[in-house]
């Protein structure tokens, strides 16, 4: 399959993959090593799911987990324009809809890219997960490494390094989205290379349906 793009905080030096950083004005330049560890955790999760996949990193976070629609849009345009990326993982969510991001998502989808973006386990969808055609991912403590839950027409829960499964450290919707992207990467490698086709397979594989319910 084509490469998987990761829009995040970059990657540790020991991880494979080309990388480019994007500034607040959307300008691109050589990426720095990951200073948050978030992009590295996302990349390792995807590689655990698909060890042979090729990664391309678009760095939109610096030393803090804060970014903008313009930076994400510039990163998405770069990945879409390369011609070698088929899937993009965005383990992030923005609180406001912005035209610049909506247009970049539309361009990426028109170019045939499948987009997987983060969604909180509860509450409204952020952007870009809220846009039509984007596959939304979150963490679900019911899900072991291989399991999926279907929480909505385009919203799926996945393994998220939760304490229920022995996880420590980083977790939640971010790693759930990364794990979902790993599922989608494997599905695409088997030939389902559109969002609609991937959604059909995810729905068939879902082990849990409906929201996780906490008990006292």
TrEMBL record:
<comment type="similarity">
    <text>Belongs to the peptidase S8 family.</text>
</comment>
<dbReference type="GO" id="GO:0004252">
    <property type="term" value="F:serine-type endopeptidase activity"/>
</dbReference>
<keyword id="KW-0720">Serine protease</keyword>
<feature type="active site" description="Charge relay system">
    <location>
        <position position="174"/>
    </location>
</feature>
<keyword id="KW-0645">Protease</keyword>
<feature type="active site" description="Charge relay system">
    <location>
        <position position="38"/>
    </location>
</feature>
<protein>
    <submittedName>
        <fullName>Uncharacterized protein</fullName>
    </submittedName>
</protein>
<keyword id="KW-0378">Hydrolase</keyword>
<dbReference type="InterPro" id="IPR036852">
    <property type="entry name" value="Peptidase_S8/S53_dom_sf"/>
</dbReference>
<feature type="active site" description="Charge relay system">
    <location>
        <position position="8"/>
    </location>
</feature>
<dbReference type="GO" id="GO:0006508">
    <property type="term" value="P:proteolysis"/>
</dbReference>
């Amino acid at each position: 399959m084509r490469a998987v793009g990761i829009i995040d905080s970059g990657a540790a030096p020991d991880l494979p993959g080309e990388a480019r950083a994007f500034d607040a004005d959307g300008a691109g330049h050589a990426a720095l090593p990951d200073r948050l560890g978030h992009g590295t955790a996302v990349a390792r999760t995807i590689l655990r799911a698909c060890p042979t996949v090729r990664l391309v990193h678009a760095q939109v976070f610096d030393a803090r987990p804060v970014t903008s629609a313009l930076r994400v849009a510039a990163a998405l345009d770069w990945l879409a324009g390369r011609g070698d990326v088929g899937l993009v993982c965005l383990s992030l969510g923005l609180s406001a809809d912005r035209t610049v991001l909506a247009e970049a998502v539309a361009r990426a989808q028109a170019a045939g890219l499948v987009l997987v973006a983060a969604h909180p386990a509860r509450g409204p969808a952020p952007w870009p997960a809220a846009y039509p055609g984007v596959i939304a991912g979150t963490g679900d403590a019911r899900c072991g490494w291989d399991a999926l839950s279907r929480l909505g027409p385009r919203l799926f829960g996945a393994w998220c390094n939760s304490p229920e499964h022995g996880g420590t450290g980083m977790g939640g919707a971010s790693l759930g989205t990364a794990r979902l992207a790993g599922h989608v990467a494997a599905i695409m490698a088997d030939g389902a290379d559109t969002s609609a086709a991937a959604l059909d397979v995810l729905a068939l594989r879902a082990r849990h349906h409906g929201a996780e319910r906490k008990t006292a």
